[in-house]
Design brief:
CATH class of the largest domain: Mainly Beta
Number of helices: 5
């Protein structure tokens, strides 16, 4: 008994209970500004609830994490949190929101090349653009549901319909969605040679048709992790002209490719801003199996993993690191399904004009940036509150990237960049503004001693 009493007192000494004056009790949470958004969607993102007890030393951290999560829902232009003392050691938390404009119908005009540098090299022709309209409701019924209809013509004809509901159960942990996409091309990249895409056009004939339909379930156990399971059906076809130009487009001189696809995607996202992060980290894992049935036209397995780190070095200097790797099997793959570096934003900066095909790759990107301006401009003459406050951020930066692509058939397409280390770097200027828009101007060079100016619109890696 004496031994037990001694151990109990020892544990108390090393894990002292918090003093009464060091804790706060949350008596009330007041939310304002959510004219459309349901309170349940907002409360799901809070690190605290009514009646919770919080250490005074942790309250600022809790508020900052909550502000971060509410911002990253992409439902609000601004989020403000503050505490109000209502009695001794008792507080209320006021959450003031400014909602975004959720119903958008805006014209689409974009290049079809992988980036503006490639588009410019190919003559900056308007024939290499698509145009149309994108109709979006980003907060349908106030439940963060998303409905999207996209109509495009020009270089590519596209019809796309998508729907997403973040939560289908009372626990607000399970979501679902579906999408249907039809795409037709009369101008098509049919092969890569010397690490460059080659195109063929025929305005009298559709060269490729793609139809895909997908349904998915998404599970969110905590605040920062999501698990997505998706089932997709793909039906692709090409004209005889394309199969003659490249018998490996679908392999074996095929003109059709039909298959089911099952994928699992894990995402842990602890970044302060999903569009342009300065702090936090992110883990991603994708396992994708193309070809589920015996009669499917493809049998391919792909594993992709990525890690991002964003860290302040000083008050206004920030470092960013992005690592990504992919392995896929078998090594012999259809051209349309072989994606190394140069596609979907996976590129070594300085190699914007190239593609490096292969079944597996590694990519490392480094960025060091300085926060020159972080401010807001208020347009008093504009009465629509969702648009009359413009956040402005300007970040000069320097960067350095490395990449490696494995391709056991590199001699077939005369690749000089596969199976060796490639690297590039440069410096640039990033402009960050509202609705998650990031505009970049960069001067880049690579290990081939090639230099170029690059313009881009998109998110941070």
């Amino acid at each position: 008994m004496l031994l037990f009493a001694f151990l109990f007192s020892f544990l108390l000494d090393n894990n002292p209970l918090p003093k009464a004056d060091s804790v706060l009790i949350i008596k009330q949470i007041n939310i304002s500004g959510n004219q459309k958004t349901k309170e349940s969607i907002i409360l799901r993102e809070l690190d605290f609830g009514t009646g919770d007890t919080i250490l005074k030393s942790e309250i600022d951290k809790k508020l900052d994490l909550t502000r971060r999560k509410l911002n990253n829902t992409n439902l609000f232009n601004s989020v403000e949190l503050k505490t109000v003392e209502v009695a001794k050691n008792q507080i209320s938390i006021d959450i003031k929101l400014m909602e975004q404009w959720y119903i958008l119908g805006y014209p689409v005009f974009q290049i079809v090349d992988r980036n503006y540098a490639e588009w410019w090299q190919r003559g900056a022709s308007l024939s290499r653009t698509t145009y149309g309209i994108d109709l979006l409701h980003g907060n349908f019924r106030g439940r963060a549901e998303r409905i999207n209809l996209r109509l495009e013509t020009g270089f590519t004809q596209r019809l796309e319909l998508g729907y997403r509901i973040p939560y289908i159960n009372k626990a607000q942990k399970t979501g679902a969605g579906f999408s249907v996409t039809y795409i037709a091309n009369k101008n098509l990249a049919f092969k890569s040679l010397n690490d460059t895409l080659y195109y063929f056009k025929n305005f009298e004939e559709i060269l490729r048709k793609r139809l895909s339909a997908a349904i998915y379930l998404r599970k969110r156990y905590g605040f920062y992790d999501t698990h997505t399971l998706e089932l997709r059906y793909n039906n692709n076809s090409i004209a005889d002209t394309i199969s003659n130009l490249n018998p490996n487009y679908f392999l074996d001189n095929r003109t059709t490719q039909r298959y089911f696809q099952l994928s699992y995607y894990f995402n842990y996202d602890f970044r302060d801003n999903v569009a342009y992060p300065l702090r936090g980290n992110r883990y991603e894992l994708l396992l994708n199996k193309s070809g589920l049935l015996p009669n499917d036209d493809i049998n391919q397995l792909e594993l992709t993993a990525a890690y991002s780190l964003y860290k302040p070095i000083s008050k206004k200097i920030y470092y960013g690191l992005y690592l990504k790797g992919k392995v896929s099997f078998p090594e012999r793959q259809p051209f349309i399904n072989t994606r190394g570096l140069g596609y979907f934003g996976d590129l070594v900066r300085g190699y914007e004009l190239y593609v490096v095909d292969g079944s597996s790759f590694l990519l490392a990107r480094n960025n060091l940036k300085f926060q020159l301006i972080n401010s807001k401009i208020h347009l008093k003459f504009l009465k629509i509150k969702q648009f009359n406050t413009i956040p402005i951020g300007i970040y000069p930066n320097i960067f350095m990237d490395y990449g490696y692509v494995q391709n056991n058939f590199a001699t077939e397409n005369k690749s000089k960049l596969a199976n060796r280390l490639i690297y590039g770097g440069g410096f640039g200027l990033d402009f960050v503004t509202y609705y998650n828009m990031v505009i970049r101007f960069s001067y880049v060079l690579n290990d081939k001693k090639e230099r170029n100016f690059v313009f881009g619109i998109g998110r941070e890696f």
